[in-house]
Design goal:
about 240 residues; alpha/beta; 6-stranded mixed beta sheet; 5-stranded mixed beta sheet; 8 helices; 11 strands; elongated
């Protein structure tokens, strides 16, 4: 199979022209005319994952390896070193970022992982109606994500509506019409602002909320006749 064939298939799932202006989704390494033997799916790409990938493969990631223009290719540094190794092994790279968030990942996380019914959606925000107190919601999220502890901002107890955005969505706070926002990468001043404005926050972390990229995409690729391998990169954070 050639790259342009899988690219057209992916474009039907989550159109690349729906990505945000600042994003860099699409074919990042390789040629549309190149052929590949198997597909690897991962949230990110790191050196350990590149070592595992067989030559003549296609890697599809959620986060783009190349986000801004590279002025220098220093093979001793990330990401240039990874790009060099990919070229040696003839590994092509397609990234599906904000276009996939809007079309698939947010919905998959809410329904399949957290187990909520969607009441409505607005771009990156998914809304769900619930009838829980804050502690009940926190305990449920910890259980579904298999987390021993979780950061929160407590502003009020009664929860009727929740808003969810995987990855990093705290900048969306001004637009949230809910009692709680569940997202990752929450900063200190955002937490303070939310509490003062009576908006609860639950930090579901970036990696933990988006690690399901591979499994959420794999179900759309089952009938292509190509081996699909889900092999996530490692979370760069560790907890002691």
């Amino acid at each position: 199979m050639k790259i342009f064939e899988i690219y057209e298939h992916l474009n039907k799932i989550a159109p690349f022209d729906t990505q945000e202006e600042w994003d860099n989704s699409g074919l990042l390494v390789g040629s549309f005319e190149s052929e590949f033997e198997q597909i690897y799916l991962s949230l990110d790409i790191d050196s350990e994952l590149v070592d595992k990938i067989k030559p003549n493969s296609l890697l599809i990631t959620h986060h783009p390896l190349i986000f801004k223009g590279l002025k220098v290719m220093n093979f001793a540094k990330y990401p240039s070193g990874i790009i060099a190794e990919m070229i040696k092994k003839n590994i092509s790279l397609i990234s599906m970022h904000t276009n996939f968030d809007k079309a698939v990942l947010n919905r998959y996380f809410v329904t399949e992982i957290l187990g909520f019914d969607i009441s409505r959606s607005d771009e990156f925000l998914i809304y769900c109606d619930v009838n829980l107190n804050f502690k009940e919601l926190v305990d449920l999220v910890k259980d579904r994500l298999n987390l021993n502890q979780i950061r929160t901002v407590y502003a009020k107890d009664e929860i009727k509506t929740i808003a969810i955005c995987t990855g990093s969505g705290a900048d969306l706070m001004p637009y949230v019409k809910a009692d709680v926002l569940l997202t990752g990468d929450i900063k200190y001043h955002q937490a303070l602002e939310a509490r003062e404005n009576l908006l609860n926050l639950i930090d579901i972390n970036h990696y933990e909320s988006e690690q399901y990229f591979g499994e959420s995409l794999a179900k759309y690729l089952q009938n292509l006749g190509v081996l699909i391998i889900i092999s996530n990169s490692k979370n760069p954070f560790t907890h002691f």
